Amino acid sequence: QAATDPVVPPEILDLARAARRVTVLTGAGMSAESGVPTFRGAEGSLWEEFDPIALASPKGWDEDPELVWAWYAWRMGLARGVDPNAGHRALAQWAAAGDAEVVIATQNIDDLHERAGSDVLAHVHGSLFAVRCSMCDAPYTGEVDIPAEPVQRLEPPLCEECGEYVRPGVVWFGEMLPEGAFDAAVDACLETDLVLVVGTSGIVYPFASLPDIARGHGVPVVEINPADTELSEGVDHVWRATAATALPALVE
Ligand code: BJW
């Protein structure tokens, strides 16, 4: 399964050409070729000694908000400093061409789909840039200082309403998804001709249940991922390719 294939499998090309509506479910692998590390198996960062999943949790925040904030500040700087890749651009181009309606539901907290020109139906795990109070939930409108060099601790800004620390507007384990986001993604998986699942390990729920929900409704599901995932066995077609090679080839 190691080799990735930039040639569109004919059955996938047929599905894509015939679809009037396409729902694209994206995960961290979508942004990998932009230079944003994926969650599982990211190497070589300042944070290697930390478990990203432990940092992205209410417990991590309660134990050490300065550590967690420094990690998110680093990721905000990283996300701002990279560009959408050919895969993000291909999805925007597909929608702009007008032959099909392209609906995107993403787990990613970056804004690379939007910066490529796509409308995103749902950011089911929130947004890196929607900073809000950790106590009273008020949106934070002040400046967020991003250090030029990554640091391992950084004091979060204080809420303008109540004076407590602010936190990134993302969804940690055990937290509820943003209101309506998951329902919108479910609807998009039911009222569609094709679901493409791009760059997700399929480990995190409830997002990982979306491909099954689509298939249960008779919608064909295609996985685009260079590696085997938890979802691979349950989809109709698997295409072992990266987002930035597969999507342009599919949309061309
Ligand atoms: C490429 C590529 C290239 C590489 N091209 N591909 C049902 C069953 C069991 C457990 C649960 C359940 N329902 C809920 C749960 C609990 C929990 C959960 O899912 N646990 C599991 C781990 C078992 N879920 C939750 O807690 C969720 N909340 C919830 O359900 O609320 C209701 C509730 C409340 C209380 C109790 C119970 C229920 C919330 C989940 C929040 C996830 N948050 C994170 C952090 C977000 C903020 C941040 O970014 O810092 O979201 S965790 C992290 O994982 C992040 C990601 O969005 C998410 C998914 O990761 P993703 O995108 O799949 O990335 P990777 O790294 O895992 O995979 C990358 C893939 O890309 C790989 O496959 C590569 O091969 C591929 N790839 N290069 C294409 N170039």
UniProtKB/TrEMBL annotation:
Alphabetical list of InterPro entries matching this protein: DHS-like_NAD/FAD-binding_dom, NAD-dep_sirtuin_deacylases, Sirtuin, Sirtuin_cat_small_dom_sf, Sirtuin_class_III, Ssirtuin_cat_dom
Matching Gene3D superfamilies: SIR2/SIRT2 'Small Domain, TPP-binding domain
Annotated catalytic residues: 125 (proton acceptor)
Record: residues binding Zn(2+): 133, 136, 159, 162
CDD domains linked to this entry: SIRT5_Af1_CobB
The record's note on its domains: 2 residues (Tyr-72 and Arg-75) present in a large hydrophobic pocket are probably involved in substrate specificity. They are important for desuccinylation activity, but dispensable for deacetylation activity.
Protein name according to UniProt: NAD-dependent protein deacylase
Originating organism: Mobilicoccus pelagius NBRC 104925
Organism phylogeny: Bacteria, Bacillati, Actinomycetota, Actinomycetes, Micrococcales
